[in-house]
Design brief:
Low-confidence stretches: none
CATH architecture of the largest domain: Orthogonal Bundle
Number of strands: 6
Largest sheet: 4 strands, antiparallel
Order of helices and strands: HHHHHHEEEEEE
Length: about 200
């Protein structure tokens, strides 16, 4: 209706999207060629002040983000004989926050999904209808929840591995045995073609 967003702050003009919802979602929205250079990164707006201080300390400008010259930000820190612990303390932020900012400045505009390995596909399983109970497949863990893990097996529908099926021992939480990006072997226990569900 009003065209593309020019900055993350414009999210606050969206009806029914209040300050709390903005806080929750702003870091996930990337704005290319917007007014604010940091909007192309996943640095959260609440950390912009710290990010700008870091840029200035290391001799960068906001245009450095746009032209990609911040890719050597970690090297620049070493040239300035700075450690993340000392710099974080000086800036009054947590070391983890500073590390996140550094990672984003080193790869401005990157798609975090690029870091997740693609599923390993079988040539005989190309689509949902090719699945049969008992098949052993390789897949990539895409999401971990309290009751299990969703695994991409290459048929455009992730399969759920229930927590009780993750190991041959008791598992309190799925994250104790798998994490997003893990490549795992799975056995197809059931295929619900009507509801398009795979266990």
């Amino acid at each position: 209706e009003h065209g593309a967003f020019q900055s993350r702050q414009e999210l606050l003009k969206v009806p029914k999207l209040g300050p709390k919802a903005f806080e929750q979602c702003a870091g996930f929205l990337r704005i290319r060629d917007g007014k604010e250079a940091l909007d192309i990164t996943s640095v959260h707006p609440e950390s912009y002040k710290a990010a700008k201080t870091l840029l200035k300390t290391l001799g960068y400008t906001e245009d450095s983000i746009r032209n990609g010259s911040t890719r050597d930000v970690v090297k620049k820190m070493k040239e300035h004989h700075l450690t993340t612990a000392a710099l974080a303390e000086e800036m009054g932020i947590g070391e983890y926050t500073l590390t996140d900012i550094l990672n984003e400045l080193a790869k401005p505009g990157r798609d975090p999904r690029e870091d997740i390995p693609a599923p390993v596909l079988r040539s005989d399983v190309l689509d949902f209808d090719d699945l049969k109970e008992g098949m052993i497949l390789k897949g990539t863990v895409r999401n971990v929840i309290d009751f299990g893990a969703f695994v991409d097996i290459g048929v455009h529908q992730d399969g759920l591995v229930h927590v009780s099926q993750l190991a041959d021992r008791f598992v309190k939480h799925p994250l104790d045995v798998v994490k997003v990006g893990d490549v795992v072997n799975v056995r197809v226990l059931s295929v619900d073609k009507e509801r398009k569900k795979i266990s």
